[in-house]
Amino acid sequence: MKIRESLALFADSWLPRSRTTRVQWVSALALSVAFVLLPWIVRLDGKPHADWEQFLGRFHPLAVHLPIGLLVLLPLLEIAGAHRPALREAAVFVLGLAFLSCAGSLALGFLLAFGGGSVGTVVTRHMAGGIALTIGVLLCVLTRPWWVSGSVDRIYPVLLASVLLVLVWTADQGGTLTHGSNYLTQYMPAGFKRWSGLAEASAAGSFYEKHINPILDADCTGCHGAGQAKGGLRMDSYESLMKGGKDGAVIVAGSPEKSPLLTRVTLPPGHKQFMPAEGKPPLRAEEIAWIKAWIQDGASPTATTVAGITLREERAELPFQPVGDYSALMPEIRQMDQTQGAKLKLLSSKPEDGLILFTVDAAGSFGDEQLRQFQKFAPYIVEAELGRTAVTNASFDTLKQFTHLRALHLEETRVTGDGLAKLAPLTQLTYLNLSGTQVTAAAVAPLSAMKNLRHVYLYNTPAQPAPGIGQAQPIARSQP
Amino acid sequence: MKQHPLCTDTEHAPNVMEMNVPAGLKREWAELQTRRHFLGRSGKVLGWAAMASLLGGRALKGDSHANGQYGAPAGESLKLPHFAPKAKRAIYLFMSGGPSQVDLWDYKPHLTDLYDKDIPDSVRGAQQLTGMTAGQARFPVAPSHWAFKRYGETGTWASDLLPYTARMVDDLAIIKSTNTEAINHEPAIMLMNTGNMNAGKPCLGSWLAYGLGSMNDNLPTFMVLQSKLNTKENNQPVSSRLWSSGFLSSEYAGVGLRSAGDPVLYLTDPDGVDRRVRRNMLDAVNEINRQTYEELGDPETNARISQYEMAYRMQTSVPELADFSKEPKSTWDLYGPEAKDPGTFAYNCLMARRLAERGVRFTQVYKRGWDMHDNVTGILPIITGETDRGCYALVTDLKQRGLLDDTLVVWAGEFGRTVYSQGGLSHDNYGRDHHPRCYTTWMTGGGVRTGITYGETDDYSYNVVKDPVTVRDFNATILHCLGIDHNKLTYKFQGLDQKLTGPVPASVVQGLLA
Asked: Between A360 and which of A70, A87, A134, B359 could a Cys-Cys bridge form, CB atoms 3.0 to 4.6 Å apart?
């Protein structure tokens, strides 16, 4: 009995009592159903349509900011309205306007997506968010009178809060569409990134993870991914990629020419079977080259390098390690100019950037003994230009004390490389030029242990004989 | 004004009127003062007034000289570089005359279909043309005579005229959206070099020499290499105004190496004069100059002293510099046999590499002859044949020697060329007029993000549609690579803080930076 009573009570408070409210509810429900069905009525087929649709649609990114502003304003009005009732009255108007602008933006959004031929999981999500949001605001309009009258005081606040959450999510999806997925986090401070778990998973990822998957992710998974799997093919994971689609495998490890994936992306763009389909831009030449070399090399999920592909590593530059305070030594530093013929110059106007040792004036008369005179300034020297001087292997004993050294020029000196291992403590060293010396491959081998040393030049040495025209390359080791 | 010791014509003439002589004699003297006397004297006064105004406050105060004092290093007192530089030196390959971006870099495949069709007025807009084509009744599209292919991992389009440069497209930042305000050679080339269309401002190299100072005291900080003329080409003049230091001290002006004979004239001591005699002579001359400086405070006197000293040191450094005999065979394989012939562009590229190795801050190589108002198909292959391999060899050589990490290399002309034909258009030949609205340049080396194409032009290679790079921005970016904030490298002259990029705001093109 009790249950029935309470149900009756509930129904009494819930069900629309007057005719007008019933009409409101029925039409609202119909409208909501229409919104939900919109994606089926206006199917996004990925093809561009009429120009006028695109023209109007492009106002969508502009128009959406109106409902966003109004919806953010709304809770503020409601809260502040507790003290100033006039604000609550204004809230009715703002809410109504929010609904109208939501519906308008939704319409423009559909014109944009349909007219411009956009598809993809993010588009779908953004669309779903927009529809949910519009329905949510509509429900807010209907439930607000209950809240005002005090008959049901929970539903409206809960609805409004959910609407705001959906708003944030939808806006984020929209932002991803226009600015890319890492727009917000790209320049996040590193510490904050680590804390929020957004840090790059691992810098030492495989070639597949670092280069192949991102291409597929950007250009293929819109149709061949979690959202859609045209032709039964999904390319969002290594396993599904290798499994292929309903017509069989798309990758034949070791034979790029037999791999349908490569064939399809290299057809002439007008061809019926060309991928990416539906007029999307073709893959870039370098991307095709990577895919080809990767398949040629066995299409491994774990290999970190692929034969024939040298990649410009976008490695973060080693940050400057400020050198200590040498202001007390400045008079002596200036004096070195006069006495040694070699000079110490400030790298930049910031003293903590360190000093450069120039020897070009002294050249032939500058030997190991002269270098030793600079030992006193060792921790402040970040660059030593010793090319064409008379220094020998004995210089390594002095140089190993240059703890902040980033670049070392020893080109065309009498260095033969014995004792290069002594430079191991120079953790900041990124550049070493040994061109035109007599260093051998064996002598430079220990350098591979120095993990920050990225640029080693051995042009015209026994370690790397002068190359012929067209293939001259510095040894820029891409991985530690 | 204090009198110059060498100047005698302002000595006080005895004033007869004040002398103790009979009045009759004074009267007689006064009658002899003719119009000629008056004019002669006022002429001298006017001359001095003019000179004072020409020298401005500098001659009187002598304080605007950067170093303040003779011999102090330039960079240090100016607190430069402003920040840690990526490039320590730069090589600027200047393609004077205006290379045709349509035939070299800016590939527009659909132009073939538009052969001999007029380009739409909407594309040309209300542009003022040069007198050379303004009178043309039609502006028919002249598609490039040469095919384009894609090169490198980046798949960058390059013309068949650039087989060597095409090999290094992955190492370049190709800027398709460079644009200028000038439409004729002299103003345009001045604008590129000095940031101003009118002569008289210091050029880029002088600003660098002034701001950053020298790395090698035995060679000039700023050197200019002119390539030999090819009379088949239309050679627009290149004058020393382009490497002038303007209002900066003349020690920052570019020093040219001659393309034939002795690289520097009169550098070798005459017979019977040895190094010691030369030294004694210079010491004496410097002593006199120093006295002059102390008396008059004219900073140009100091510039003269340092120029004498530089010439003395160059007596030993230049012969070593110009001695290519120790270059290995691989050098000649790379640069080609032309590089053995002094004054060719290839020779100058090799010289530029040697100057870079020796710590010369800024080297500018000029190649004239890109001005093609007619017979493009006849002349363009000649000039690309002269320059293509040298450019490639220089960049490749710097790279293999580990110098490209801290050397900036720039390739640019003063403007581009029109897509429409100047004069008659046939399937075999056409001409192209000056085109300031877009032209292609490239950079590479220290501080530059390579393997990119920056900026886009419209379908006619006529207007920039994306990421325009003005001459100001271009120069600001070059300065940035060398650790200089273009807004901070200034010099007070005529009441203004003068700078390379001029008073109109300029911005460093971030998209071009590594």
From this structure: B359
